[in-house]
Design brief:
The complex is a heterodimer of chains A (about 160) and B (about 350).
Chain A lengths: L1 H20 L3 E14 L5 E7 L8 E10 L10 E6 L4 E3 L5 E2 L2 E6 L13 E3 L5 E3 L7 E6 L8 E10 L1
Antiparallel strand pairs in A: 1-2, 1-3, 3-11, 4-10, 5-11, 6-11, 7-10, 8-9
Chain B lengths: L1 H18 L5 E3 L2 E2 L10 E4 L2 E6 L2 E6 L3 E4 L2 E3 L1 E5 L4 E3 L6 E9 L5 E10 L6 E2 L4 E4 L15 E3 L4 E4 L3 E10 L9 E10 L12 E2 L9 E3 L5 E10 L2 E13 L4 E2 L14 E12 L2 E12 L7 E3 L5 E2 L2 E2 L9 E8 L2 E14 L4 E11 L1
Parallel strand pairs in B: 1-15, 7-19, 9-20
Antiparallel strand pairs in B: 2-16, 3-6, 4-5, 8-10, 10-16, 11-15, 11-17, 12-16, 13-14, 13-16, 17-20, 18-19, 21-22, 21-23, 23-30, 24-29, 25-30, 26-27, 26-30, 28-29
Classes of the chains: A mainly beta (about 160), B mainly beta (about 350).
């Protein structure tokens, strides 16, 4: 009896996994470190390297890639990607973007959203002010076009490790 | 974490076993707070997507992207007094240095004391001991054995942002001359294996807290600062205070029941206590005080001929008394300059003088 239950559970799990792997959109998050080096001409150059050695103060670039692996187009304007600003990091002003997207930010854990000029925070002394980039808790991108089968696009943002 | 600390403890015991010495470990007595995200912290990220196909709403989570924070090895040593006045033959003259772990992990440091010749070479204690300050003050009075740090054997272990104030004693040679200078350097060295000899940006694989990599951001993983000793056989001090305020109703020290209030027309009597102490002498001791002229917005005005030196009234004119009052311009602002010229004075016996003068609130 117990064996049958276990078998059923396995079949269910296999079915769930199969369903998961067939989700039309595949979402992949990756991170790289932004390194500033001086090139042979003596100029400062920024380049992306693997985030293998990261210490406080380092700048990081996150990329979220989304791919339509299904057979049907995803509705235009329907893809909304939400990413929290990772803990122990500070969002860098103006760094969020992505082709064909509108970007909004939240300062309240994703409850409300707005463009930078519209966001307000209340300080400990009760004073309300325009939010700074370091107040942002979440970033949200709305992808305007439809995403056709096998089409891929990405959004990105940068942070500094506290 | 426990395993790593246990390994370090075992390693320390192994070192002690091999040398037979007993080493003390001093921990921080203050803190600036953690210097950035703690080494070993995992930083994770997961994005979420919501979308629709033919009007049917679906959601999807990304993978969880994770990396660990590496350890930055960084220490700061800062001398607390720009210079310390000493006399020839003085023993255990103290310099104080604040050591701060600016890294983002727990770090061990050893210390070196390096006397350097500028004019003279201070003589560091023969027992190689420096001392942990008590209540942010360096003093050899009532110093206890628990404060003594043997630079040959002992180590510091500071949490991120942890600070400790270290007092370095040195004897001053007897045959020094007035104005001569000597330097003493305190150096803090990271004890992470490989830090010594590392260049800026070098990575010590697996040497950080929790087994993460450690990144050296200072050459050799160390910092140092110099304390300056200046031989001065004589010391001049000037202390300025308000002796009394007279507002037409009351006259007495400020902020006392009999003292006047700082209201227009009130007269303030300032006092300068001048002391020359020590075995040497000073040539051309001249005390100068500049008082801005009142402008349209009020301010204070010097009361002419109000200077008194040791109960002797003075005139503003350049005459036979000690005082001259002139007009000078400082940064474009006109001032009255009071100059009291004592000429040559000796510290033995101690020279003391009291200068008073008055200003009126406009």
């Amino acid at each position: 009896m117990k064996t049958i239950h276990t078998l059923c559970a396995l079949i269910l799990l296999a079915a769930t996994t199969a369903a998961w792997s067939q989700e039309p959109i595949r979402l992949l998050s990756s991170v790289q470190k932004v390194e500033t080096v001086v090139n042979e001409q003596g100029e400062q150059e920024r380049r992306l390297v693997a985030a293998e050695r990261v210490i406080p103060g380092d700048e990081l670039r996150y990329t979220v890639t989304f791919t339509n692996q299904g057979d049907e187009a995803v509705d235009a304007g329907s893809i909304v990607i939400t990413n929290p600003v990772p803990s122990n990091t500070v969002y860098l002003e103006g760094s969020a973007g992505g082709s064909g997207t509108d970007v909004r930010f939240s300062v309240d854990g994703g409850e409300t959203w707005g463009e930078p000029d519209a966001l307000r925070v209340t300080d400990e002394d009760g004073q309300t002010r325009i939010a700074d980039a370091e107040d942002y808790s979440h970033i949200r991108w709305t992808f305007r076009p439809a995403l056709q089968p096998e089409q891929e696009s990405s959004v990105f943002f940068r942070v500094r490790l506290r | 974490m426990f395993g790593f600390k246990l390994c370090r403890a075992v390693a320390l015991i192994a070192v002690l076993g091999s040398t037979g010495a007993y080493a003390d470990v001093f921990t921080e007595t203050g803190s600036l707070g953690p210097q950035g995200t703690q080494a070993g912290t995992l930083i994770t990220n997961q994005a979420r997507a919501e979308y629709s196909i033919s009007g049917n709403t679906l959601t999807e989570q990304s993978n969880v992207e994770t990396f660990s924070v590496d350890e930055r090895i960084q220490v700061d040593v800062t001398v607390q007094m720009p210079s310390v006045r000493v006399q020839g033959g003085q023993s255990q003259s103290l310099q104080s240095f604040l050591i701060t772990n600016l890294g983002n992990g727990q770090e061990r440091f050893s210390l070196d004391v390096l006397p350097m010749a500028a004019g003279f070479t201070p003589i560091f204690a023969s027992d190689n001991r420096v001392y942990r300050a008590v209540e942010d003050a360096c003093s050899m009075d009532d110093v206890t054995p628990a404060q003594a740090f043997d630079v040959e054997a002992d180590q510091l272990e500071l949490a991120s942002g942890g600070t400790i104030l270290i007092c370095v004693p040195a004897d001053i040679p007897a045959d020094v001359s007035n104005g001569e200078e000597g330097l003493i350097t305190l150096r803090a060295n990271s004890e992470t294996p490989g830090a010594n000899g590392a260049g800026i940006g070098d990575v010590l694989a697996g040497a950080g807290d929790e087994g993460v990599d450690a990144v050296v951001v200072q050459a050799d993983g160390r910092d140092e600062d110099q304390g300056l000793y200046v031989v001065s056989a004589v010391e001049v001090t000037v202390v300025k205070s308000i002796a009394e305020v007279a507002d037409g109703f009351r006259t007495g020290p400020p902020n006392t029941p009999q003292g006047g209030r700082f209201i227009p027309d009130a007269v303030i009597t300032y006092q300068l206590d001048v002391t020359v102490a020590g075995s040497g002498s000073v040539e051309n001791l001249r005390i100068v005080d500049d008082i801005p002229l009142p402008n349209g917005d009020g301010g204070i005005a010097y009361v002419p001929n109000s200077v008194v030196v040791d109960d002797a009234g003075q005139t503003d004119a350049a005459d036979d008394d000690l005082t001259t009052v002139t007009e000078v311009t400082i940064d474009g602002v006109p001032h009255r300059r009071i100059t009291v010229d004592f000429g040559s004075t000796s510290g033995d016996p101690q020279f003391e003088s009291v200068i008073t003068f008055q200003v009126q609130i406009q």
